[in-house]
């Protein structure tokens, strides 16, 4: 008969305990991480659904900071703790790559935006190239063209229609979200807003004009993985998620395109 010493029995007990702990750890899901995303305000209606799908299919959380592309870009340049930047244009995403604030090779176009002229007070002849006289509005809202690409597009549309922007009573929102609220609150008669906002709110088509894409430069929206997010698994997974079929289907359901040719 073999008699184990007390020390030997303790050794075997400790070994068994360590094996048990290791087995339990193997069965646990991967550590949950959070990704902090700076997203252009026009994309806010889409982000809710994207985040819900992302979180349901991963062990991660997504924290969204929405604002005008220009202001978010400035925050990133000055060290704001974001992992991913989803711009409303291509230019600022590219600038972050050039200034080494973003990871090389991470830039991707995730959507082509559309702009619409919306007025709850009037019905429009949506089959016309210029369905309504812009100068009839006492106040017309646009996003600030200095910081918001959708504001820049609005100015381009106005000029393409042969109207001098200085002849209009323009009210500028800090971003396209605030511009939309100006119209909702009836502080203005009409506004150039993101098409996705109107889809999200189920606005009747007779009250808006979806601007033909050829009347302004393409609203090519690009995302980049920021340097802070390079070592964050949740940020890397978010970038991969944006390329997935489920993500593209959600984005397209809000009126965004993936091909400029459309």
SSE order and pairing:
Blueprint: H1 6-27, E1 34-40, H2 44-56, E2 61-67, H3 69-77, E3 84-86, H4 91-98, E4 108-113, E5 115-118, E6 140-143, H5 149-160, E7 170-173, H6 176-184, E8 190-194, H7 195-200, E9 208-210, E10 219-225, H8 233-242, H9 245-253
Parallel strand pairs: 1-2, 1-3, 6-7, 6-8
Antiparallel strand pairs: 3-10, 4-10, 5-8, 5-9
Helix pairs in contact: 2-9
Instruction: State the order of secondary-structure elements, H for helix, E for strand.
Output: HEHEHEHEEEHEHEHEEHH
Oligomer: single chain
Number of strands: 10
Low-confidence stretches: 1-9, 14-30
Mean pLDDT: 88
Count of runs of 4 or more consecutive helical residues: 9
| Helix/strand/pairing category | alpha/beta
Helix content: 25-40%
* Largest sheet features: 5 strands, mixed
Approximate shape: globular
The radius of gyration over CA amounts to 25 Å
Question: Could you give the order of strands across the largest sheet?
Answer: 2-1-3-10-4
Distance between the termini: 85 Å
Which percent band covers the strand fraction? 15-25%
């Amino acid at each position: 008969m073999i008699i184990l010493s007390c020390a030997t029995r303790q050794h075997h007990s400790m070994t068994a305990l360590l094996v048990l702990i290791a087995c339990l750890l193997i069965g646990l899901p991967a550590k949950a991480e959070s990704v902090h995303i700076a997203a252009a305000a026009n994309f806010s209606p889409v982000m809710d659904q994207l985040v819900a799908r992302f979180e349901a299919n991963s062990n991660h959380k997504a924290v969204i900071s929405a604002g005008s592309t220009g202001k978010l870009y400035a925050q990133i340049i000055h060290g704001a703790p974001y992992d991913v930047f989803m711009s409303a244009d291509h230019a600022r995403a590219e600038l972050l790559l050039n200034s080494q604030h973003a990871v090389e090779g991470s830039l991707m176009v995730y959507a082509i935006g559309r702009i619409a002229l919306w007025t709850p007070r009037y019905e429009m002849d949506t089959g016309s190239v210029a369905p309504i006289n812009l100068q009839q509005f006492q106040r017309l809202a646009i996003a600030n063209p200095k910081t918001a690409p959708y504001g820049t597009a609005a100015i381009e549309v106005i000029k393409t229609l042969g109207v001098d922007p200085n002849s209009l009573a323009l009210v500028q929102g800090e971003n396209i979200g605030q511009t939309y609220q100006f119209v909702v609150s009836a502080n203005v008669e009409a506004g150039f807003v993101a098409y996705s906002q109107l889809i999200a709110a189920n606005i009747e088509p007779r009250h808006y004009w979806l601007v033909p894409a050829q009347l302004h430069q393409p609203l090519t929206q690009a995302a980049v993985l920021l340097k802070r997010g390079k070592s964050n698994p949740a940020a890397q997974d978010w970038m991969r998620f944006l390329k997935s079929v489920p993500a593209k289907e959600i984005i397209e359901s809000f009126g965004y395109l993936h091909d400029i040719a459309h």
